[in-house]
Amino acid sequence: MSVDLYPLLRQYHWDGKKIIVAVSGGADSMALAALLHRAGVVITLAHCNFGLRGAESDGDEALVVGWAQEQAIPVVVQHFDTPAILEQEGGNLQETARDLRYTWFEKLRVQSGYDLIATAHHSQDAAETMLINLLKGTGIAGLHGILPQQGRVIRPLLALRKETLLHYLQTAGIPWREDSSNQKDDYLRNQVRNQLLPLAEQIVPGAAAQLYRSSLHLQEAEMLYLESVERYRKRLLEQRGKDWYIPLLKLRHCNPLGTILLELLKPFGFTAAQLPDLKHLTEAETGKYINAPAFRIIRNRNFLIITAQEARESNHILVDAGTEQVHAVHFDLAGRERQMTEALMQEVLQADAREAAHLDLAKLEFPLVLRPWKTGDYFYPLGMNRKKKKVSRFLIDQKVPLHEKEKIWVLESNKKIAWIVGKRIDERFRIGPGTERILSFFVTLH
User: Fold this and answer.
1) What residues bind ATP, as annotated (predicted)?
2) What does the alpha-carbon distance between residue 39 and residue 33 come to, in Å, rounded to a whole number?
């Protein structure tokens, strides 16, 4: 069976580009590397060794490096001490590994002056993603599955079946290795791959291919959907100064009301979970309102008015190393660096989390960012055994009143939340036996 990627490369204008190829040593990525090399693309192989499977991981690396040398293809290997990173920062193994490799791929791409990063997702991966998103209840954007290109990342194999790739490898005599962890049902994707998709294939032969074709239709349907949403946005959303007005008379004549209303309000941070209340607001009395983290929507006579929350009008505040005073909208912070001692450890253990935060200075990356919390924020609350939690859920569990939530700010270190000010620090930045210096912040409310 002949497989030629050049027509696809030309279709997406990827021909003539220099491409970093993510290669694990598995069948999919080895096929991708071989096919791009055969098509005459300038490539460099990038292999991540996460050190999670001992000799098996080292065997994957040896295979990739050996094959690259035989083909005279440049190859770069990056080792990660993943267990140590998880121990230090907490988090989910799959998410951590994904963040590590994509961050490194992009760094390598920039340093080497390459154009794109190629990954080996194929049609079965697209079908799996579509099923996972369907099970999670995502909207149309989730149902179209994996896209051929997102930013600098491309997926040249999306239209190909796994069986096609395996046949090509066997015919061409290209080696690959099986990752034993793929057979374990420890993760949702593996469960879908090993249980749900094979069952779907038994019920409807060719189900994976049909799902992939459906995802292509949904990609086009999403384009039409977004065009329609944009027309409603131009018709219904009017900016007046810093506020946005939606005329209720026009809105009530729209169908379907719920979908249109949600699409108008999503950019302001309102969510699908709030839709019943938002629809009710269209019939409520003047003065009623609903909050999102950064905005509030108010019923005022014949309009819904979207206005910024007071606390969100301030810019983010950068906190450099050695900063002693920080002034925010609803509070002030006093910063203080200190050498860790036994007496200081006792002070830290007895500290009231509402009044102060004590962080391991070595784990922080400056400048820190002090900003209002927003929808989608998450952290690993101290005392919760390194379990990730959305800030919104944490505030609900803490029974923070609605009008107080807009006053909540977070302190970030390299895009990781280190502290919900006045509430809880993040497990990844806590003080431990190896801490040498700490950074304390003392809170004074206005």
Assistant:
1) 24-29
2) 10
Task: State mean pLDDT over 160-174.
Answer: 93
| Alpha-carbon gap, residue 431 to 352, rounded angstroms | 15
Q: Cis check for the bond before 367: say yes or no (omega within 30 of 0).
A: yes
Q: Is 142 annotated as a binding residue?
A: no
Is 4 known to sit in a ligand binding site?
no
Query: What local confidence, expressed as pLDDT, does residue 383 receive?
Result: 86
Q: Is 59 annotated as a binding residue?
A: no
151 is in an annotated binding site: no
Convert the pLDDT of each residue in 78-112 to its tens digit.
999 888 888 777 777 878 888 899 999 999 999 99
Q: How far is it, in rounded angstroms, from Cα 57 to Cα 181?
A: 11
Dihedral pair phi/psi, residue 2, rounded to 5°? -90, 135
pLDDT class of 310 with cuts at 50, 70, 90: low
Other CB atoms within 10 Å distance of the CB of residue 310: 12
Model-level pTM?
0.56
Domains of the chain: 6-217 (3.40.50.620), 237-308 (3.30.465.60), 315-445 (3.50.40.10)
Consult the annotation and say whether 360 binds a ligand.
Answer: no
CB 302 within 8 A of CB 288: no
Dihedral, CA of residue 402, residue 406, residue 411 and residue 416, to nearest 10: 70
Count of residues making up the chain:
446
**Closest C-alpha to 326, from 369, 355, 372:** 369
